[in-house]
Design goal:
The complex is a heterotrimer of chains A (499), B (297) and C (286). Chain A has 499 residues and is of the alpha/beta class. Chain A has helices spanning 3-16, 108-115, 117-124, 135-147, 160-170, 177-181, 197-203, 226-231, 240-250, 268-277, 296-311, 322-330, 344-347, 389-399, 402-410, 425-429, 435-446, 458-473, 478-498, and strands at 99-103, 127-131, 155-159, 212-225, 336-340, 359-363, 373-382, 448-450. The longest helix of chain A has 21 residues, at 478-498. Chain B is built from twelve helices and two strands; from the N terminus they run αββααααααααααα. Chain B is globular, with a radius of gyration of 24 Å. The chains are: A alpha/beta (499), B mainly alpha (297), C mainly alpha (286). Chains in contact: A-B, A-C, B-C. Chains A and B meet through α4, α5, α12 and α18 of A and α11 of B.
């Protein structure tokens, strides 16, 4: 049968994957692969159509033990003798002397890796050239290099919510299942099952390939300025209706206080809108690649976005990306700010914030139909064009190791793909953000759901709908704009799937 | 006889000059002509990076002709260009008149004045972005100091183009000033002396003597500025990225989006071709206007 | 008595006018340079303040106390010395090659009236830089020099060659032909006439062409983004390295912006006289 059919079938079932063990998520085009050894047949998916989240379940690292257990730590080489012949025990020194290039992003996650790179080099004897361009430049560089059939990097940090389908479809990043299976290639302490279900599912392609090691899984949350809420005796919002009502009550432009702030800039705003749409329990693009962008839910959601951004946000919000929104909130000028959990660290730093200690981290409120926390994810992939894939694999393993992710977690770099970081006492102790934030992250993990569609033309999608949303902030009619954007985007999507 | 030998000599000299240009021709073919040919060829293909390339003839152009978003970039680009040409010309003439006077530290002040055109656009643009912030920006603070209501600058669709042009004006007025300054230095002094005797005032002298004399130089400035303003990229890309919405999406930004965000190389190449025709057309119009001007004098 | 009085009055009114003129000039000078001064001042101010002061409103103008944290941060996180070195090599080489190739070409075009090539150069000058990017990138991939300083230098020739040729053509066109004719009659060949006679006269023009080409190349951002690799990145591209996702970074960005643009600013202040005399000597008569 055609690949597409199986994939669709697969997607349908994948969508049914309800409450996993931890970090439950519904992903548009991801297959669950609990064990790396087995190519996940569609039947492996629980048939239980429980779409509803299971908020009762604790996010403790209780993942069921996988059949193929990684070798016990005792098998680790006692002496760092170089094992040249594969088939023996695992050795970090196996690729000693090789030199690889790692293309990361300029963010806290990348900073932690860069700061600890000596640890990796000492451990493995591999020299790493680390590059951290700004996100936008990095994404362009990636696409152009991959497309030209050769890459200057061996291992790359990329975003599942933007590039997964493009990379996966073109097989630009290599399948690491063979490495994961091979006890001589996978460090005994690595523990694949420590990764959250959401992370594992997101790193997996519809055909079972594992294209990347998940690194960071982030959730949308609502930052609230407690001081402003308390001053007017408003309770922290639990639903969208309460959120809008709070924005209205707290909005006081004469005192330079605005009820709400968020991304209004074209492209960036699509993210926020897609997160909001989850409250109506639908994806912008469903697993059958139907656009859910003109229905009553999308219109209602857009109207809420329009209402918040047009009436209760600072003037000029149509040009705001995360950084302008962040400044407004950090200065105490906005009562609420809806964005990813990863922005907490600077808000809790007195050098850059006036709201330190005054921030309430509220789980993305419940919409009219359901409560989900919008999710984004990043991972580390190995370039298919790399000639040093072994060394690159070692780097991605190290970059997603318990210790590195715990360090990133402690530095406030959003929520991590491993369950163990949340119980890592050392990380919790040195956490630069309040523990209330951790509670929010953990709670979000239980209701996490990918918001952006897993399609190739993600950028076009974000651009076209971004313009529509931006027009709405300017006062345009929501339904008309949505219709226009949908008509414009539909042929692009169809073409990309045909190609 | 003498004439014939002269002609022959002239011919051989003409040939000898070819050797002067040969290396340049080679270099230009490698780095300039090759990209043109490649672009033209790609503009006839449907190719998105990561996909297959397919010959489609003029389909890309047909699509562009009906693409409302692309079409809207053309008047927007022209509006931006108009502002970025006229204002520097007016301000540049004024500045040149100032620097044509003698005053202490003139060299240093002039150096500072032309610094913007030498500054790295990307760096400057980042600083301007911070200055334009509607709530925290220093420019709005100045406005409130003098009692003008705050502006949204690049954060509103209505003001974004003039604001971006403002940055362009800030950066490129010095170039116009330099050109006019060169012109002023070359002016004869006699007409001014006789005008003084006739009792002409400053404005009359400027209007009836200086202006006609510097007009040809101004035309040069206009041509250079027009071409560069049409192509302006760094400033818009860094400050507004074409936003809010598409309010500042010029042809060049649209082109960038197609090529490097959407990776639609075929489509982008077609945009290049159309863009190029527009620039060429404007340049020719201006050159013709300049010739006319020369002729009339 | 009366005439003395009126003479004094005339004297006073003359002085008054002179003073008024001076004040007007002073005022005009301040008016003209203040936008430039303010933007650079603000850049400096942002770079010396903590983030909380940078986003304060009303704005904090004078950093109190100034901090060098932003500079420490950007120098710690990015290798600006390397990027600066790359920029010098790329812009220097691209300018030098452009002069070597472009000055004779401009001479040839001006004297030999090779209008075709002249047009080609003009067209090259008006082509948007973006359109060179994809083909050149593919070309560099194909011959295997992508990401090298060599590739970057070649791409910068797209900027520098048309600039040099374009400035120099009008220079040579305006030059009086008698001197060269005299040299030719004296038995010089064309090369000698060019090298011994025309070049020295055109020196101010060459200086302007070199300065403009160098600075245009130095400031180029786009080619660096796409073509340069990790170790061949130039300064303008590195400005963006100061922006960290999820962090406010006005201070570091301003610091990086200043570091990147400082060399061209200093160069400008030192060579402004050359630029002015060069341009006055007619390089942009077109």
């Amino acid at each position: 049968m055609s690949e597409k059919l199986t994939r669709r079938d697969f997607l349908k079932r994948a969508a049914l994957l309800g409450a996993g063990v931890t970090g439950t998520a519904i992903l548009n085009a991801c297959a669950p692969t609990p064990e790396p050894t087995k190519a996940p047949a569609p039947t492996a998916v629980p048939a239980q159509p429980t779409k509803a989240p299971e908020p009762t379940k604790a996010p403790a690292p209780t993942t069921a033990p996988a059949p193929t257990k990684a070798p016990a730590p005792t098998t680790a080489p006692t002496a760092p003798a170089v094992v040249k012949t594969p088939g023996d025990a695992f050795s970090w020194q196996r690729f000693k002397g090789e030199k690889i290039e790692a293309l990361l992003i300029k963010n806290t996650q990348g900073d932690i890796m860069a700061q600890n790179i000596k640890e990796f080099q000492d451990l493995t004897g591999i020299t790493v050239g680390v590059d951290q361009p700004a996100e936008q430049q990095q994404r362009q560089k990636l696409a152009v290099e991959f497309a030209s059939g050769a890459t200057s990097f061996d291992v790359v940090y990329y975003s599942f919510h933007v590039q997964k389908r493009l990379f996966g479809k073109n097989k630009w990043v290599m399948d690491v299942r063979d490495y994961l299976k091979d006890p001589t290639m996978t460090a005994p302490e690595f523990d694949w099952n420590d990764f959250s279900e959401a992370g594992k599912a997101w790193a997996t392609e519809p055909d079972g390939r594992i294209d990347a090691l998940p690194n960071k899984i982030d959730y949308c949350n609502l930052y609230c300025n407690k001081e402003l809420f308390d001053a007017k005796g408003v309770a922290l919002p639990k639903t969208y209706d309460e959120m809008v009502a709070a924005a209205q009550k707290l909005h006081d432009p004469s005192k330079n206080v605005f009820g709400f702030v968020g991304r209004g800039l074209k492209n960036a705003n699509t993210m926020l809108w897609a997160w909001m749409l989850l409250g109506w329990d639908i994806d912008v693009i469903d697993s059958k690649l139907n656009l859910n962008t003109t229905g009553p839910e999308a219109v209602e959601c857009s109207k809420m976005y329009q209402n918040l951004m047009k009436n209760y946000a600072p003037p000029g919000v149509g040009g705001f990306n995360w950084n302008e929104a962040q400044s407004a909130f950090a200065l105490g000028q906005a009562a609420m700010w809806m964005d990813g959990v990863g922005f907490a660290a600077p808000l809790e730093d007195a050098k850059s914030s006036k709201v330190k200690g005054k921030v309430a981290y509220v789980v993305q409120p419940k919409g009219p139909k359901a409560q989900w926390a919008g999710m984004t994810g990043d991972g580390m992939g190995i370039s298919s064009f790399s000639k040093k894939q072994g060394a690159a694999w070692y780097f991605s393993m190290w970059a997603a190791s318990k210790s590195i992710l715990a360090k990133s977690f402690a530095a406030g770099s959003g929520s991590q793909a491993r369950n163990s970081v949340y119980t890592n006492a050392e990380a919790l102790k040195s956490l630069t953000v309040p523990t209330a934030w951790v509670d929010t992250v953990v709670a979000s993990g239980k209701i996490g759901r990918a918001a952006l569609p897993i399609i190739v033309p993600v950028t076009e999608f974000r651009d076209i709908f971004g313009v529509a949303l931006n027009n709405m902030i300017g006062g345009a009619d929501a339904a008309t704009e949505l219709k226009k954007a949908t008509d414009e985007f539909k042929p692009i999507l169809e073409k990309s799937e045909k190609a | 006889m003498a004439l014939a030998s002269h002609r022959k000599k002239g011919y051989s000299r003409q040939n000898a000059y070819l050797w002067f240009i040969a290396p340049a021709v080679l270099a230009i073919f490698a780095v300039i002509v090759f990209p043109w040919v490649y672009t033209l060829w790609m503009s006839l293909h449907d190719w998105q990076i990561g996909g297959k390339s397919e010959f489609v003839g003029i389909e890309n152009f047909v699509k562009l002709a009906t693409d409302a978003r692309f079409l809207s970039t053309i008047p927007r680009t022209l509006y931006f260009t108009l502002l970025s040409v006229l204002l520097p010309v007016v301000l540049g003439v004024f500045a040149a008149e100032v620097f044509h006077q003698k005053f202490p530290l003139r060299g240093l002040v002039r150096g500072i004045y032309i610094a913007p055109m030498m500054a790295t656009p990307v760096a400057i643009a980042l600083v301007f972005t911070m200055m334009f912030h509607p709530q925290l920006g220093v420019l709005n603070y100045f406005l409130t100091l003098v009692g003008i209501p705050k502006s949204l600058w690049v954060y509103s669709a209505d003001t974004v183009i003039p604001t971006l042009a403002l940055v362009e004006v800030w950066q490129w007025t010095p170039l116009v000033m330099l050109i006019v300054l060169g012109a002023l230095a070359s002016l004869p002094t006699e007409p001014y002396e006789s005008a003084l005797i006739d009792g002409a005032n400053q404005w009359q002298m400027f209007r009836y003597i200086t202006f006609p004399l510097i007009l040809p130089f101004l035309m040069i400035a206009v041509i250079i500025r027009t071409i560069d303003a049409l192509k302006s990229f760094d400033i818009i890309y860094v400050i507004s990225q074409g936003g809010p919405g598409t309010a500042s999406e010029t042809i060049n930004i649209f082109l960038y989006l197609q090529a490097f965000s959407f990776l639609r190389i075929g489509h982008a190449s077609a945009v290049v071709v159309v863009f190029f025709v527009i620039i060429l057309a404007l340049a020719i119009i201006l050159l013709v206007a300049r010739e006319r001007l020369r002729w009339n004098r | 008595m009366e005439s003395v009085n009126s003479a004094r009055q005339a004297e006073i009114s003359y002085r008054l006018k002179k003073w008024l003129g001076r004040i007007a000039l002073l005022f005009s000078v301040i008016l003209v340079v203040s936008p430039a001064i303010f933007v650079f001042f603000w850049m400096l101010s942002l770079s010396l303040k903590y983030e909380i002061d940078n986003i304060a409103y009303p704005p904090v103008f004078i950093p109190d106390p100034p901090t060098f944290d932003n500079y420490a941060k950007i120098f710690r996180e990015s290798n600006y010395v390397l990027y600066g070195y790359n920029s010098v090599i790329v812009s220097g080489a691209a300018t030098l090659i452009a002069l070597l190739v472009g000055v004779p070409a401009a001479y040839g075009i001006a004297k030999g009236k090779a209008q075709g090539l002249g047009m080609l150069i003009m067209v090259a000058r008006i082509t948007p830089g973006l359109s060179y990017l994809i083909p050149l990138f593919m070309l560099f991939r194909f011959i295997g020099i992508s990401g090298s300083l060599l590739a970057l230098t070649i791409s910068h020739l797209v900027i520098t060659i048309p600039m040099v040729v374009w400035v120099m053509i009008s220079f040579f066109e305006d030059m009086h032909p008698e001197l060269e004719e005299a040299a030719l009659v004296d038995g010089c060949n064309i090369w000698q006439a060019f090298y011994r006679v025309s070049m020295p006269i055109a020196r101010p023009g060459i200086a302007v062409a070199a300065i403009l080409a160098f600075i245009q190349s130095w400031n180029n951002f786009l080619f660096g983004v796409v073509i340069a690799g990790r170790e061949t990145r130039t300064l303008p591209v590195a400005v963006f390295n100061a922006m960290t996702f999820e962090q406010l970074s006005w201070g570091p960005v301003a610091a990086a912006a200043l570091v990147v643009t400082l060399p061209s600013l200093l160069l400008t202040i030192f060579v402004q006289r050359d630029i002015v005399t060069g341009l006055a000597a007619g390089s942009v008569k077109g």
